[in-house]
Amino acid sequence: MRFRMRTPDWPLTATRWTQLTLAEDDPAHLDVDFWTSVMRDSRSNAVCVSAGGYIAYYPTRIPYHHRSTFMGDTDPFGALVEAARGLGMHVMARVDPHAVHADAATAHPEWLACDQDGAPIEHWSHPGIWLTCAFTGYHREFITEVAREIVREYDVDAIFANRWEGYYGISYSEAARRSFRDDTGFELPKREHDTTDPAWPAYVAWRRRRLSELVAIWDAAVKDLRPHARFIPNLGAFAARDLEPELVERVYPLFVVDKQGRSGIEAPWAAGRVAKRSRGLFPDRPVGLITSVGPEYHQHRWKDSVAPPEEVRTWIVDGFAQGAFPWFTKFNATVSDPRWVPAVVDAFGLHAKLEPVLAPMPVTAEVALVDPSRAGRIRSGAAHSFPDEDGFYQALVEARIPFDLLADQVLSAERLRPYKVLVLANAEQLSDEQCAAVRDYVAAGGGLVAAHQSSLYDEHGAPRANFGLADVFGADLVTRLRGPVKNNYIALTGEHPVSDGFGPAGRIIGGTRLLGVVARPGTQVPFRFIPDFPDLPMEELYARKAPDAPAVITREGPGRVVYIPFDLGAIFWETLQADHGLLIANAVRWALGGEPEATVRGPGLVDLAVRRDEHGLAVTVVNLTNPMAMRGAIRETIPLPPQTVSVALPQDAAGATARLLVDGSEVPVAVREGRAEVELTGVGLIEVVHLTWEKG
Fold first, then answer.
1. Ramachandran area for residue 487 (φ above 0: left; ψ -120 to 50: alpha; else beta)
2. Which SUPFAM superfamilies match (predicted)?
3. Which of 27, 147, 529, 638 is deepest in the core (most CB within 10 A)?
């Protein structure tokens, strides 16, 4: 077979992905023409198709590489590759190595994941197949040969690996036991997340290192056959945090994040957070957000179903608005319910329309919310559950304050430099070096908003006697965390911008987990805790003592600082009390020292993204206003009432012009007090105001 020459930078032009994950019986009735039309109509320029691993959808010659029993003498994978290439698309071949069939398990028991007794682990969902261990020859040798066979025989640009880590728990296979013992001197830990066991942190580091080595082996194997080809492992919403930075620089041309939708009370802005999270750690790497056409309910697993079309559209659009290129996936090539097709075609069409203007313009923000990396070493909350950060995120979205996420691993002077305000919702674990970076940032004039237990532990989770940033907060610890408490209130005790907007209220709801602190000289205390009093009997429900301990502390020097010694973000996320959201917004606005560079005024729930280049600025407004905003899937998007977009102009700007990129029209611009204002009407799901100006 002859191949067309391509270069290693092909991921930069693969910006709209169709993924088709085949079921074993699909070869018997695969409609290649239908899928070709979907790829063409959606303006997809890249495709990811099931090829091998657990099941081969091509005529493999590798022993124990299970061929689809419905394939006969056909080549469904090859047919789809040919169709995509006919449309000029990039192609990834999907492999899944997390399980094997019984014949492979019998012939190679050393490939299997094992429990603590050494017994192989059967698949939890499909009896008769067996889970694999990533630290055995199955991954290092067998899957390597599968990848090489696909790249050798087909015109593909990459191998995409799903569930490539094998068994997600601790596998006690002989290979894993031996490798861990040889590398660390420990036996494998008996329980996951047992921070009292010294083997656990060693295991976390060892697993990360060995999986990183595995990706490098696979990547080298495919590049050996075709220099432009890459091996792309699927990532969960948090997995990029666990990658070795050197490996990312050398191996990862892009990230593909497997956060396929929302469920339950997950917020509709969660799609955009995927893009922010990736940029907050690796800003120079493109990131794709996988969107399922079906609902995401892990406990029920309706993988062969269809989500409401508006939910699919919104998830895709909010993702690309914040910088994640769109990627949709369909499980099972049989289309029993095609209602997802128009939604994907419409959302992908919007991306194609906006891409020429937005792609060259980087997303910018004046505010950064620190994204914690406490997985495996959590001091409060379940793994991957960060309610404090969720609450601050929700409050900033509601307040329409554009912001970035910044990973705590890269909290340095260089990464802080672009921002005017840093937000620590509950950055419990900060090293001395990270604290020094924040201290220097504030000393240079940066604003800081911090809450709860921020800096109270070092990077290993060991408690400090006082906050690592006590001098910056203007607060010293008196009593450690107390709670959960009930019926807590904080009193407004002085005029200050952070207490604006509460009208005649003398007090508002406080928190549930409180720290006792004292304020240092030179600070202000606009809120104080009201001492505890009973919530029952109702006749006893009254305050006995005057407000005393500080609940909000502010200080103003080179930079403005707000410290809040309770679980403000977590309690806002849990209860969505408006006063908590207002307090967060007030604190950030005051620390910012003025109006944000770009604002959008008007009713409704919107997610904002701001992009800038030397010629102008683009404000993306994603309309999240819908009856199910904080519960369940979106059925409809309610058009926004009139909005006003306001942008600060450079001092040397000579007027400004504005164009609506979705609507396609030019609109009037009013310039008032150094700001350009544009009126928006009739916004449906998304609009982009592109402002340009000439220098005077």
1. left
2. (Trans)glycosidases, Class I glutamine amidotransferase-like
3. 147
Q: Cα Rg for the chain, rounded, in angstroms?
A: 27
The b-or-e profile of 285-318 (16+ CB within 10 A means b, else e) is bbbbbbbbbbbbeeeeeebebbbbbbbbbbbbbb
The interaxial angle of helices 270-281 and 309-321, nearest 10 deg, is 30
Residue 240 is predicted with a pLDDT of 61
Q: Which residues contact 602 (CB under 8 A, 6 or more apart)?
A: 640, 641, 642, 643, 644, 680
Q: Distance between CA 651 and CA 654 in Å, rounded?
A: 9
The confidence band for 1, taking pLDDT boundaries of 50, 70 and 90, is very low
Cα–Cα distances (Å) from 235 to 240, 289, 290, 653, in that order, read: 7, 10, 10, 43
Residue 59: beta bridge partners?
none
Taking Cα atoms as reference points, which of 377, 456, 468, 389 lies closest to residue 425?
A: 389
pLDDT by residue (tens digit) across 433-482? 999 999 999 999 999 999 999 999 998 889 999 999 999 999 999 999 99
8 A C-beta contact, residue 13 and residue 45? yes
DSSP result, 469-491: THHHHTEEEEEEEE---SS-EEE
8-state DSSP, 394? H
Give the per-residue SS3 of 583-649.
HHHHHHHHHHCCCCCEEEECCCCEEEEEEEECCEEEEEEEECCCCCCCCCCCCCCCCCCCEEEEEEC
**DSSP one-letter code for 114:** B
**Which residue has 């969720």 as its token pair?**
390
User: Beta strand 90-96 with 46-53: parallel, antiparallel or unpaired?
Assistant: parallel
Q: Considering only CA atoms, which of 292, 304, 296, 297 is closest in space to residue 333?
A: 304
- Highest-confidence segment of 221-225, 253-257, 459-463: 221-225
Tell me how far apart the alpha carbons of residues 49 and 158 are, in angstroms, rounded to a whole number.
11
CA–CA gap between residue 269 and residue 266 (Å, rounded): 9
Q: Are 147 and 140 in contact (CB under 8 A)?
A: no
CA distance 685 to 637: 7
Q: Which of 681, 47, 618 is nearest to 321 (CA)?
A: 618
Buried b (16+ CB within 10 A) or exposed e, 250-274: ebbbbbbbbbbbbeeebbbbbbbbb
Contact 123, 197 (CB under 8 A): no
CB 363 within 8 A of CB 279: yes
Omega within 30 of 0 (cis) for the link into 127: no
Strands, DSSP E only, in 484-566? 489-492, 507-509, 514-519, 524-529, 550-556, 560-564
